[in-house]
TrEMBL record:
GO terms for molecular function: nucleic acid binding. It comes from the Eukaryota. InterPro entries: RNaseH_sf, Transposase-MT_Hybrid. This is Transposase.
Length: 148
């Protein structure tokens, strides 16, 4: 028997109900790109996959210029992101060079955080606190709705 289930109860008191958590879809990662007028691209990483330089370059960064070109020319496009190793690989840097995209560097003594860490992610987490989603598609739709 589990030791957690053992507790003293007076003879005339009912036993407390055991709270059972619902199954959750799990965690899912989204790469979110935005511009001054608003959000540009939201890309979902498949469940169970890890972020690699190939995924970052071939899945994420290929979609961003297509969306930017709908609003403006690519000349002078700047990207600011955290300093994760997958975003600093030769493959990623070569791709950005071919699209004439420049990276905004981090200050020498600043923390390795992107602007989303301060205002976007806490806002989304607060809205989803305590909610369970039945499948990945429902989670994906909820994130897109929250951001739009």
């Amino acid at each position: 028997m589990k030791c957690q289930s053992h507790f003293w109860v007076a003879s005339n008191d009912p036993h407390p109900a055991k709270i059972r958590r619902q199954r959750s879809v799990g965690k899912n990662m989204f790469a979110i790109f935005f511009m001054k007028p608003g959000f540009n691209t939201i890309i979902s990483l498949e469940n169970g996959k890890t972020v690699t330089a190939e995924w970052c370059t071939n899945e994420c960064l290929t979609q961003v210029p297509k969306q930017v070109e709908k609003h403006r020319r690519l000349n002078g496009l700047l990207i600011h992101h955290d300093n994760a190793p997958t975003r600093r690989t030769a493959l990623t840097m070569e791709y950005l060079d071919t699209k004439y995209v420049k990276l905004i560097g981090h200050s020498a003594y600043s923390p390795d955080l992107s602007p989303c860490d301060f205002w976007l992610f806490p806002k989304i987490k607060e809205q989803f606190r305590g909610k369970n989603f039945q499948d990945i598609n429902e989670l994906d739709d909820a994130v897109r709705t929250q951001i739009d």
